[in-house]
Amino acid sequence: MTRWLVTGAGGMLGRDLLEVLAGDQVTALDRAALDITDAGAVRAAVAGHDVVVNCAAWTDVDGAESAEEAATAVNGTAVAELAGACARSGARLLQVSTDYVLPGDSEHPYPEDAATGPLNAYGRSKLEGERAVARLLPGAGYIVRTAWLYGEHGRNFVSTMLSLAARQESVQVVDDQFGQPTWSYELALRLAELGRSATAPPGIYHGTAAGRASWYELARAAYELAGLDPERVRPTDSTAFRRPAVRPGSSVLGHARWAEAGLPPLPEWRESLAKALRRPAFQTPKAGG
Known about the structure:
Elements: E1 3-7, H1 12-20, E2 25-29, H2 39-46, E3 51-54, H3 68-89, E4 92-98, H4 121-136, E5 141-146, E6 149-150, H5 157-165, E7 171-174, E8 178-179, E9 182-183, H6 184-196, E10 203-206, E11 213-214, H7 215-225, E12 233-236, H8 257-260, H9 269-276
Parallel strand pairs: 1-2, 1-3, 3-4, 4-5, 5-10, 6-9, 7-12
Antiparallel strand pairs: 8-11
Helix pairs in contact: 1-6, 2-3, 3-4, 5-7
C-alpha cells in the first residue's frame, strides 16, 4: 500500500485530500505538527513515505508584498528542502503551486510550458518552489498549479459571497479578472489519482476547473445555485478594490498534460460548483431573497 505524507493537512485542500485518501496509509501533518521551514523536521517527516503531497504554503498574497523573504522561506526554500528529502528517500513529491507564477495577460489559456512571469511577491515565492522541484526531482516531481480555490474547510470567495448574502442586500464584485473557479475537493481527487499513478510523467500539470469566469460571474452563479437572486450581485472593476498585490487579469490555464498521465482534466466549473453547494457547509440563510 502506498504510504502518503500530507503536509498542510489542516488547510482547505489538505482536509479534502485526507477525505479522499481515507482508508489509505496516510501521515497527516498540519502547521502545528510540522513547520516546513525546519529542514531537520522535514527530513524526518518524509522518511518512510512513498508519496508526499505538499499543501503547506504561505497563502497571504497581499501580506507577501511586505514580507517577501518570509513568504519565499515557506514557498521556496522550504520546498527545496522537501524536494531534497524526497530525492534522498526515493519518494515522489506533488507540489501544489499557483497560476500566479504566470503573467496573467493572455487572451488564451496558458499551456503547461508557458513562460512564467509573476506579477507579485507571492507569485515569485511560489515560482522558487517550482524551480526547486524541477531541479532536485526531475524524475519524481509533480507541480500542480491551481487557482481560485473554494471549499468547505476554510475562508474562500464562494463562502464569503454566501455569507454576505445573509447580511446585506447587494454586493459589488469585479468583472474584469478572469479565471477558473476550482472546487478543492475535485482537485484533491485528481491529486490522489496522480499520486497513485505508476505511469504519469513528472512535470507541470494544471489543476483548475474547465471553462472561464469572472469573479462577478462566479458570484452570480453561486447565488443562483444557492437559491438566491443573482441580480443582487452588481458588477464593478478592479479599481474599486485597490490591494497591495497586483492580480493577474486572466488566470485561465490549459489542461493538455493530463492526457499524458492517462487522466481526465477537472470538470467544468459550474458543474463542480453545483455539486459543492449541495454540501451542508455551504447551506446559508437566504436573507434578502
